[in-house]
Amino acid sequence: MIQSMFILSPTGEVLIERHFRGVTSRSVCDYFWDRASASVNHHGGLSTTTSLLTNEEQQLLLPLHESILPVMEVPESDHGTVYIISILRDGLSYLAVLPSEVSPLMILEFLHRVADIFVDYFGSPADESTIKDNFSTVYQLLEEMVDYGWPLTTEPNALKQMIRPPSVMAKLQSVVFANTAVSDELPRGTISNIPWRAAGVSYSQNEIYMDIVEAVDAIVDATSGNLISSDVSGSIQCQCRLSGIPDLVLTFNEPSLIDDWSFHPCVRYSKFEREQVVSFVPPDGNFQLMRYSISADRRANFSPPLDCHSQWNVNKSELGFAGDKQPTEATARLMVQIQVKSLSSLIKSASRTIGGTRLVIEEVAATIPLPKQVRTAKFQVSMGSIVYDEAGKIAKWTLGKMADDSSLTRAQLTADLKLNPQRGEDEIRSPNLSLHWKIPLASVSGLSVSGLSVSGEAYRPYKGVRNITKSGLYQVRCS
Question: Would the pLDDT of 179 be above 90?
Fold first, then answer.
């Protein structure tokens, strides 16, 4: 299983090093980083642009796959041939070193779970400064999450009973009284059949909220606006504040809309197979109840909610220098136009249908990674605001809310760029855009909840369910 684990900063520095089955030389990190940094789009300038990019945009615009694969072989190391499985989250590279072949999906899921735990403990983003500020807590968490290379405790509630989340008061007590954040007792849930549920939970006001979130991954042609490929994945995110040990049953209006699914360990899977209902004892706090994909006919009906077009022009002129290859000075202009298209392909929630109000696209933003040859950039926008990171060569255009009205004028961005002098036939690539948007109270599949019942406790909690459709890996590609 996992022999060692490393966490690397955006510049390749080893922040965290933990060995579970013998010591692994840091040369494997050098081997990894030599290939990761070979691509200028990987971590170049990422330490300054992390705040501009979501984790989805990091995977889309700064993919590890350009130079290395998520699973790679390191031959002839100090311990023979080893394997590195890696992910990129919040600008940090999480590396798991394995001496033999195992299921890579399990290790990838575990690495993502580690990153999620760091966000749960320290807040978002769990970047380089956060890891350095909570250095000791990170090592304590890894000590409890892995036992001799095998994933052990990954439930946030169980971990929080063993290791208290950092706070100002806890840091003062550790300095003054030499107290430790590690509990002397095991969490009471570890010896029960529901280890994800903390014991003795009590709230003055009992409530549970559910968000049915459907993320659209798509590739759109920037010239025609046509959809090249798309996929829709859904998840149910829960926020639970219920006392005691409640037993919940969630029912859907049309469970046949779900094509494939995976559940949190709290769900009784056999009951879902028999009755198509989700029966579970929920964890306390925030958690993901299930993930699913929708049927093919529903995916085929989806059309892009935003009409995005871009034009890219480059002008070159030779400089009067002696030599066989004259250096070329170039300027470029980028023009991007965004407008709301018809949202008729989306299915409104019942509350929106009864009210008769139009849908609104929220948090509209476009992330534009400019070519590495850009020296200076000047932007003009007709609406919204623009933030440009000169070190990372990334611009983020934030438009905010856009109403479902095709008669409104297009939002336009114009960028005048000056490029560094080039020799030879250096290719200046047109930038691909990453769009971000969110549409509340609408869904692609039409999946809705018909009921949520609570048993095992005497109280009647407040319950709320809403649908959200948002962008996932949504890219507009220039030809």
Answer: no
